[in-house]
Amino acid sequence: MTIHAANVRIYEKRTETALLAAVALHAALVLAAGHLPGRAWITGGAYLLGLLTCVLVTAGAARGGHPAQRPLLRRFTLALGALLLGDAITLSFELRGLPIPALGVADTLYGAYYLLMAWGLLKLTRLRLRSLRTIAMILDSLIVMVILGTLCWTFLLTGNVPLHAAGAVYMTLDLALIAVGLLALRQQRLSVPVALICAGLALIVGGDLHYAVLGSYASGDRADFLYLWGTALQALGLWQRREQSVRGVQWRPPRPVRVWLAAFPYLAGGLTCAALLLARPTPVTLWGAALTFLLVLIRQSTVLEENRLLARKLRHSAAELERRGARLRHQARHDTLTGLPNRSEFEDQLRAALSGPAAVMFIDLDGFKDVNDTFGHPVGDELLRLVTARLQAHLPARATLARVGGDEFTLVLPGADERQAMHAARQLLGSLRDPVPLVGLSLQVSASIGVSLAPRDGTDVTTLQRRADTAMYHAKRSGRQQVQLFTPSLDEQRRERLILEAALRRALTGDEFTLHYQPQLRGPHLESVEALLRWTAPDLGTVTPGRFIPVAEQCGLILPLGRWVRERACEQAAAWHRQGRALRVAVNVSPLEFAQPDFVPHVQDLLARLDLPAHLLELEVTEGVLVQDLTGTAAKLRELRAAGVRISVDDFGVQHASLSALMALPADVLKLDRSFLTGPGGGARPPPDRRCCAPCTPWAAN
């Protein structure tokens, strides 16, 4: 590819050099020939050779150029070919010493040249005739053409009428080409080849002007220089265009050039006025001035129309910008999914409501994560939209509902007291009582709502939101689908929970936990022990399991904590087994732990790694595990029991699982809740048939 590109560049350089050499040869021969005999043969031959080179270069560009450019390049090749043939016929008359006819075959070929060049230039402009801008540029070109024609006729075309009439015809054709060339130059972006073609056209017009002024033509005079150099520039421009796409390599003229091009018609009009003042007016001058004035009036009407359209466009753009700005402002302060105000907008509304009493509610949907995990986020989004519609339908007057998180909403009710706030919150809960039809199912949706009141619970936005969130958190802990009013004790509970959570995270890596073992007797014999977790924190002292276990379950720390208990208890049981004391160890299992996919594999791996017989491990699960997923629980319990692990059900009777379901489980021991051992009057009931393990004094492992 590199060699091919280098060869192409060499070919281009050679072609351009050959073109330049042919033009330079003509100039050198004209200067050297002087008044020598046969001068016309020398200069005329060099001139025709230069023109032939231009035609060959253009034909080569048409033959080997881009497919999109070939039709256009062929038109220009035909135009230059017609020019070459016309000049050859004209030169033949001169060489034979015959007078050049006023109108002949050569003039027909010259006319074809002008027509083909105008056609090609129009194709280069790619004008849209229905465009107001195109009409304006056409008028500008016509104004320039009329003005230049008027000036040339007034100041230059005088004397020998027949000869000057022929020159006037060519000048008119030249002016038409100038008009078309100006259309190309007035484009917002034009290509370098177009600029070269127009520059060559300007030189050819200069040659025709020279011919029209002198009234005679001879081979080797200045007109030939202008004709040949103009044709060479056109050929060079077409040669450079051959490899371009339809649009070509674009460039934007400098601002001064564009300003002068725009002002040129008006400058030319000033020249017409000068002609009327300085020269004796002729009919052509007067008609030209009148036509110029008419065209300028029409052009000014297009300026007025352009200004009107521009003003309308500016008004439309301003209105569109205002609409977009309003939409962006709305999007910046509203939730895109539900259309509700977002956190920033809500806080502004709450801040404005704090001039008097107000209620703040924090609403959190119960179990929304399960919907997302089960049905996917699109279904979850649709559920949020439906819930939003229900909440909005039951909003009290003057209330503002906002979405501040995934399934979290906040509400401010200005002027509300405790009674009004609680009534409004219960209405919102009632709006979610009916199932939501979605994905062909009826999904039951509920929410937990926390309420704080201003100024009782706070006088600033942050405090009121935080305390409403605290109350909502307590409502969710209390069983969900509830309304909880904030009280100072809730703040203390939450603060304590946060302190415990931070201390728990530290304790997991700080070796602050210990295991105690509570004996379980069958008669006088020690049958097994139950592993009991104890925690003594450096800054909190002894923390009971009733305080830290719920916190660990809520923040997810129960998983690493439960794994630590199982591993330490199994290690202790394995140590006793190696000492010849086959003592079974019972370990409590949280429902969250039991639900993990790797729970059973971890127990099996632990037994194998410690070489602990499976019957020396007893796992205690609560009734809550059975209620959540009876089928999955039974499968895991069967797998553990098949491996030899002993299974016991603890605290039976708290959540009232059916006895038929319980009896289908592969459990070895059933531990009844204390309420099953207490009669209606508080007296003791007879013990059940299955064994109940009562608490006894714990003892530490040796």
Quick synopsis:
This protein is of the alpha/beta class. Helix content is 62%, strand content 13%. The strands form four sheets. Strands 10, 11, 12, 13, 14, 15 and 16 form a seven-stranded mixed β-sheet that branches.
Task: Provide structural commentary.
Strands 10, 11, 12, 13, 14, 15 and 16 form a seven-stranded mixed beta sheet that branches. Strands 4-5-3-8-9 form a five-stranded mixed beta sheet, sandwiched between helices. Mean pLDDT is 79; it is low at 159-163 and 681-702. It contains 23 helices and 16 strands. The longest helix has 50 residues, at 283-332. The chain is α/β, with parallel strands linked by helices.
Low-confidence stretches: 159-163, 681-702
Total strands: 16
Specify the biggest β-sheet.
7 strands, mixed
Radius of gyration, rounded? Answer: 50 Å
